[in-house]
Structure formats: structure tokens, C-alpha cells
Amino acid sequence: MYLVERLAPIQFPLVNRFYKEAGHKGKARGDDVVFVLKAHGIIRAAVRLCPVEGRLFLRGLWVMPEFQRQGLGSVLMQQVIEQYLQGRYCWCYPFAHLEVFYSQFGFKVVAPESVPECIAGPYTAYTRAGKAILIMIRDDSDPESVPD
Description:
Blueprint: E1 2-7, H1 12-22, E2 33-39, E3 42-52, E4 55-63, H2 72-85, E5 89-92, H3 99-103, E6 107-109, H4 117-128, E7 136-139
Antiparallel strand pairs: 1-2, 2-3, 3-4, 5-7, 6-7
GO molecular function: acyltransferase activity, transferring groups other than amino-acyl groups
InterPro entries: Acyl_CoA_acyltransferase, GNAT_dom
Protein name: GCN5-related N-acetyltransferase
């Protein structure tokens, strides 16, 4: 049985310790919205929703390596959508091989030339560094629109 919960900022050291132990470089910051998935009271997966220049970015969706490919990321994402993302735009830069995963939660690939500079700029830097990533957006209000 899994429990998905939103952490209060005072609990962010717990998720930061999880990220470090799980081999992820991300860290929760004060204005992030953080959700974790726990099994038997222990964090097994986490995700951060970060405000960046008035936009919401999904960052750091991570599952403890020994629990990957068991559906925990899907359980966490579904709960985050139900508890927080309904009616909100949300951007992400997933690795290209995760397109199908994010698509099942309503994220759509967006061309870099069609997004604001604050989104295209970091994407360009990541791809120049050799990262095979995409720009994706989730929008409950109008799936065909891309806000600027």
C-alpha cells in the first residue's frame, strides 16, 4: 500500500535526503511544491513542482532505483494530477525515452521554436550539453493551446 502526500517546506530536508540517497542531484527549495510516495512510511518516490518566471515546471520525478519499473512513478503522477495539477499548465523537460510515460498523463511535446525564451533557453543549454530531452506541457483547460 502506498501513501502519496504533499510535504510542507519544513519537511523538505526529508526529500532532499531521499534524492541524495537515490542518486538524484535535485533539491527542493522553499517555493517548490513537493509530493512523495511512501511505502511503510519510507519515501520511495518524489517529485517537485517548481515556479519559474510565473510558470510551473515538473522537476525531479524520481523513484528509488530498486523500486523502478514497478508503477510507483505512475501512482505518484496520478495523485499529483488529482491533488494539484487539475486546471493548471505544467511544463517539463523529460528525457526523450520518457515521452510515452509523460504522454499518458496528458503532457504533449512542444517544438522549441514555439515556446517562450525562458523555456527554450534552458532546453537549448541542456541539449548542447548532450542531454536527449524534450519540451512537454500539460494543460487541462485547452490541450491545443500553448501559453506564453
